[in-house]
């Protein structure tokens, strides 16, 4: 066992011998905490220096300190805060998404639809042209080869 | 030249590596992430392919992606323009994902490659979705030239295409455009009969022989206008996939006598009849398209790809009754195969590299394109985990497994390179005795944990196929159905009041476990030159029993991807009532294993399909 080494392919897809997996993860915690703390400090600075709030920046700085300390001394607490932060972010994201997309959808697409109805254009071509005996349509000719670098 | 092909962000993400035109590796992401139909950027599959090919960090020459994402996005926006003010719920679910991921694919790929120590090449190629399918069908095929049909749900705008391949060139001639889609029509019935869309279509196909085609006229009169050349127009008044989160609407419910079946509830006569009816309509359309392809191209051979090409009943019909002499179907016909197709398209068409074809053998290498694990490694793993196992010599291995099968044991086999595509072809398979009357229900309920009506497929020695099945040509990828030979069949009367389970258990031939209710079977023919280990097991089974056929079902349980590593195989073995596990040269008996204890309820983590 001591002499055995997984080959490169096997180690890539099945790293069962990698006993350091957890250690690697725990080593990354302080880094993640530091990034989060820097972001929180930046937000606190904006609130304090630009918007002249006093209580909220202090709360954020305390939270940033807890995040950093928990990453070193209480990983379970760090993971809990991390999970809470992600869940909160998701909820805020959903609310913002709906707030932004509702007016966008109904203004942009409904007006667009009305225009299409007036112009009698159906981009989906739901109905066949009168008298058509085929629904095959000609495929566009192959574009120049350099077009294959484009996403459209 | 190293070309890395990628398909992702819809379902069945995959990666493939083509080195100087040779297919070196290909795998679906789900096998590594253990999430069935995983759509995410296939970073594990990419890592595997690059490792398998021994690619240096700066050794990727070209990356290809299997569709044109901005054209697809344009189609989605046009769809909302055509249905607004309906469609908001679909829009609000789709748009954030597009904004976050799908519009930034080059950067996503670059980031993923750099995270894994690889340099993104300058050459990034986007092929059309159906070009990728067509390339995956034609370029690996044995044919020098052929007609090509691709059929699936939808790519950018095309839902079906008809084309022609010759040498290293490929041209799509005609297409049918969204929303008129044979794949989506079939998926609508998949949804309506209570199965999962993009996953349960093969169950609908398996259910079809239990029913009668009583809804064919209703489908033809109301849902679809089929032209003589196989093209068609769907009546969108019955479908909800343009503006809703479901496939069908209330008009569809009214046409077919009630609302959709709720998943996991009992399957009624209506669902069986619907399954049969849509299967008949699908076969009719595919057959008409095949005739049109022949007429348009004049070719004598046909290549097929796209999700609908996994409908092996329709494929079998084209082969038997269609206008082509030979039919070749890409084994990874669904979106996973697009990764391979886009890479091959880049090599042959964009880079204009030649292609050779001998009209006999394809270049898919049996579709064994995934990872393999050495006996040394398996031994180390088993030893480290203290799992008791017996090492079998090369001579005794096949004979021992054949003996266990003959003794009515169920044996899981994990050997050689993993298969690319949805079928297990003997290297990640569960094997059983096809002569057994009880084996189908045993395998379905105790081992696979899946619906009792679903049939099992046979693997058969290629030279013996004609003795068991009405099959003239090899079927190495299990993509064709054929009838069990008449002299082997029994035609006992089916009582009117029989339950589905009793009907499943009726003996229909001398190979009852693999004979479906319509006396068909989804055959895999096994050639020793392609997979000697698997061939030898079946050959030994034949020498013991006189039958050169075994049951072959994929090594997984319902909702789980097929196993990849020996560790996955061991977990699946211990979670089910499988009797033996053969991993490489090692044989493990369930009776000898330590108690299996899992902290989590593994069944809860699976999404049933």
Question: What's the short version?
Answer:
Chain A is an all-alpha fold.
Report on the architecture of this protein.
The complex is a heterodimer of chains A (152) and B (609). Chain A has 152 residues and is mainly alpha-helical. Chain A has a domain at 1-73. Helices cover 66% and strands 1% of the residues of chain A. Chain A has helices spanning 8-13, 21-50, 55-73, 75-119, and one strand at residues 137-138. In chain A, helix 2 runs antiparallel to helix 3 and helix 3 crosses helix 4 (75-119). Chain A is flat, with a radius of gyration of 28 Å. The two termini of chain A are 53 Å apart. Chain B has 609 residues and is of the alpha/beta class. Chain B has 3 domains: 2-66 and 69-126 and 335-358, 2-Layer Sandwich (Nucleotidyltransferase, domain 5), CATH 3.30.420; 182-326, ATPase, nucleotide binding domain (Nucleotidyltransferase, domain 5), CATH 3.30.420; 375-591, DHBP synthase, CATH 3.90.870. Chain B contains 20 helices and 21 strands. A 9-stranded mixed beta sheet of chain B has the order 13-21-20-14-15-19-16-18-17, sandwiched between helices. In chain B, strands 3-2-1-4-5 form a 5-stranded mixed beta sheet, with helices on both faces. The mean pLDDT of chain B is 95. At the A-B interface, helix 1, helix 4 and strand 1 of A face helix 2, helix 3, helix 4, strand 5 and strand 7 of B.
Strand content of chain A: under 5%
The CATH superfamily of the largest domain in chain B is identified as Carbamoyltransferase, C-terminal domain
Strand tally of chain A is: 1
Mean pLDDT of chain B: 95
Which ranges of chain B are low-confidence, i.e. pLDDT below 50, for 5 or more consecutive residues?
A: none
* Largest sheet properties of chain A: none
Please render the helix and strand layout as text:
The complex is a heterodimer of chains A (152) and B (609).
Chain A: H1 8-13, H2 21-50, H3 55-73, H4 75-119, E1 137-138
Chain B: E1 2-7, E2 14-19, E3 22-28, H1 30-33, H2 43-52, E4 62-65, H3 69-83, H4 88-100, H5 105-115, E5 123-126, H6 129-138, E6 145-151, E7 158-166, E8 169-177, H7 182-192, H8 201-207, H9 216-223, E9 224-226, E10 232-234, H10 250-255, H11 269-297, E11 301-305, H12 312-321, E12 326-329, H13 336-350, H14 375-385, E13 390-391, H15 394-406, E14 411-414, E15 428-432, H16 439-447, E16 457-461, H17 465-468, E17 480-483, H18 500-505, E18 520-526, H19 532-545, E19 549-554, H20 566-575, E20 580-583, E21 586-589
Parallel strand pairs in B: 1-4, 4-5, 6-11, 11-12, 14-20, 16-18
Antiparallel strand pairs in B: 1-2, 2-3, 6-7, 7-8, 9-10, 13-21, 14-15, 15-19, 16-19, 17-18, 20-21
Helix pairs in contact in B: 6-13, 7-11, 8-11, 11-12, 15-19
